[in-house]
Design brief:
124 residues, 7-stranded mixed β-sheet, 4-stranded antiparallel β-sheet
Amino acid sequence: VQLQEWGPGLLKPSQTLSLTCAVYGASITKTAYYWSWIRQPPGKGLEWMGVIGYDGRTYYSPSLQSRTSISRDTSKNQFSLRLSSVTPEDTAVYYCACAIGTIPGDGYEEYDYRGQGTQVTVSS
């Protein structure tokens, strides 16, 4: 399974970040596969943002829930992240990732697959 994420590298404060992850080698509707967005700010550890499951259910980090939305396009085998009202604190490398058989949450790091990441910088 391979994941490839992409999106704009530079945003201004208050804008909305939109990222997309294309999945190759497995259907995003495959039973027990969970598709997450995670990020790593400079000098910090991984932060789980949210997940969309094979059944379309979504779960979000409580700290980001009010600004985060994850959706999917099954016809393209892709899933997407929207993060609204970004600030410089949202500057990070953003990854899409897959966990099999487990719904990931805060602190989870044992993903089965992960994309290479895309740098997002928020600056005026």
